[in-house]
Design goal:
The protein is mainly α. The chain contains twelve helices and no strands. The chain is elongated.
Length: about 280
């Protein structure tokens, strides 16, 4: 709070202060836009609500993942112990024994591949256009639903606030090109270029893969009734609610999948231990 007070007394805007404090681009952009539409208090309340929801999701993810991760660690230790001490003493010419022998190498290989993939994607996204990247990511089946809901809710909220304060769409787009958020700037310029070529705003929005199809219809319908600001704000609230609902549902699916994997590995361990014993008993008989 001391830093914020000093910044405000020195003539800095709240968004500039938050940028110095290294808040996320999403928060900084929302606060910067609030300087235009004037609803700073409401914007801060909405940011607080969204961050609270995100924190709840993170806590739930930690709760869901903690026990399975502990089981996985114990499982890896057991597999390494079996591979080192028990399996060399028995014949493991069976599928389960082969899998147990290969499992440490599979874990290592998967970890290296995943790390390389993440580092490569981070480097690629940093050196390419955010707008093109979002368009590409919006095609992936596993995350497109969450991405569409998040971006739709975010932009519908900001556009709705600005339009409700009397700003015209062209003014909003010009303002977007002046924000620190690179995606915001590129989208604003892209929309300006499209409108200069005679394309309607809702038509261009419909072409973006990372927005829900209903957003373009809401914009077209709101323009016809001259209540676009109110329509976007109502739609934004519904989109935020759907987004957090889907995220919470996804969290409940992760834990059973991890438990299923752990159970499968335990079955393989038992098979690797018992099958050679049964084979030796059968041959002795």
């Amino acid at each position: 709070m001391t830093t914020i007070r000093e910044g405000l007394s020195n003539g800095q805007s709240l968004s500039e202060i938050l940028n110095d404090l290294r808040f996320s681009n999403s928060v900084i952009t929302q606060v910067a836009l609030a300087d235009y539409h004037g609803n700073t208090l409401q914007t801060l309340q909405l940011i607080t609500e969204n961050l609270t929801q995100v924190q709840k999701v993170r806590q739930k993810l930690v709760t869901v993942a903690t026990y399975p991760i502990i089981l996985l660690v114990f499982l890896i230790v057991i597999v390494l112990g079996l591979k080192t001490y028990l399996l060399p003493q028995v014949t493991t010419n069976n599928f389960a024994g082969t899998v147990i022998n290969l499992l440490p190498w599979l874990f290592l290989g998967f970890g290296i591949m995943l790390t390389g993939l993440i580092l490569g994607l981070v480097r690629y996204f940093k050196t390419t256009s955010p707008l093109r990247n979002i368009q590409k990511v919006g095609r992936f089946p596993l995350i497109q639903t969450y991405l569409k809901l998040y971006l739709t809710a975010f932009y519908a909220r900001e556009w709705g606030n600005l339009i409700k304060q009397g700003l015209e769409m062209r003014q909003i787009l010009v303002m977007m090109t002046k924000q620190n958020n690179q995606l915001f700037r590129e989208m604003g310029q892209d929309l300006i270029d499209a409108m200069q070529l005679g394309q309607e705003f809702h038509e261009k929005i419909h072409r973006y893969r990372f927005f829900a199809p209903e957003l373009a219809l809401i914009i077209e319908y709101g323009d016809m009734k001259a209540k676009l600001g109110d329509e976007l704000l109502i739609y934004a609230d519904e989109s935020w609610a759907k987004f957090f609902e889907k995220v919470e549902k996804a969290m409940t699916i992760i834990q059973p999948l991890v438990f299923l994997f752990v159970a499968l590995m335990i079955v393989l361990i038992y098979a690797a231990i018992l099958l050679p014993i049964y084979d030796q008993m059968a041959s002795g008989i």
